[in-house]
Amino acid sequence: MPRYALKVEYHGAGFVGWQRQKEHPSIQGAIEAALAKLEPAEHTIVAAGRTDAGVHGLAQVAHVDLTQDWQPFRLSEALNYHLRNHRIAINQCVVAGDDFHARFSARERRYLFRLISRRAPLTHERGLAWHVKRKLDAGAMQAGADRLLGRHDFTTFRSTICQAESPVKSLDELRVEEIELPNGTEFRFHVRARSFLHNQVRSFIGTLEQVGAGSWSPDDVTKALGARDRSACGPVSPPQGLYLAGVGYPTDPFKS
């Protein structure tokens, strides 16, 4: 059975997240339904990471085993045809080796979080960024972010329903980018690690927003991290600003 790697882009609004659910629409379920139109059978696709409801994907990676030998371009075009009524697109499709696994072969995940600071409501970016009305200090947020880099027990910054065996993770990058807009300021948070705990990134961003507003200091971030207590975390940011931006592998399957 040939294995195919897919690079998937999606708008998370209207979905319960990546993972298939019987009663609710999911990205995984929509793609598997499209595959069933091409090869009538039950299909299971495996993704590099599960995104929550409302979270977007710029470059999610998944793999699937099929019975037919598809030309990758034809497969992506056929899938996109059947996904045309969803905000999901297959941007790349390649034949992958049997040893490639979208989840277990991954060496890093990269997330982007978009926050727009301005008084007026968002129009074009509504649903694509977190709207914050108060002004934020990028330097203070970066100082707070720096306190989180490295290997730590991130109990404070993970959901109480997180199923990971250990709260200890290594955070390789948490960089704050400030972009001036005609009517406000956009802050982009670039986050990179091998793996993440449930709600870890959104917990980081909600806490750093408090630092940017002056409600918290960078030292407060250090204290929260050291507390190893979920109640010490700042507010969790909403999902609509979060994007799975990329997945890294020892050998990029999408490079010929």
Short description:
With 256 residues, the protein is α+β, with helices and mostly antiparallel strands. The protein is 22% helix and 30% strand. A hairpin with a 2-residue loop joins strand 8 and strand 9.
Mean pLDDT: 97
Order of helices and strands: EHEEHEEEHEEEHHE
| Computed CA radius of gyration, to the nearest angstrom | 19 Å
**Strand elements, count:** 10
Sequence stretches where pLDDT stays below 50 over 5 or more residues:
none
Q: Strand fraction band?
A: 25-35%
| SS summary, helix count | 5
Shape: globular
- Share of residues in helices: 10-25%
Distance between the termini: 21 Å
Query: Main β-sheet: number of strands, strand sense, barrel status?
Result: 10 strands, mixed
Task: Name some characteristics of this structure.
ten-stranded mixed beta sheet, 256 residues, single chain, 22% helix, alpha+beta
Write structural notes for this entry:
This protein has 256 residues and is α+β, with helices and mostly antiparallel strands. The chain has five helices and ten strands. Strands 1, 2, 3, 4, 5, 6, 7, 8, 9 and 10 form a ten-stranded mixed sheet that branches. Helix 3 crosses helix 4 and helix 3 packs parallel to helix 5. The protein is globular, with a radius of gyration of 19 Å.
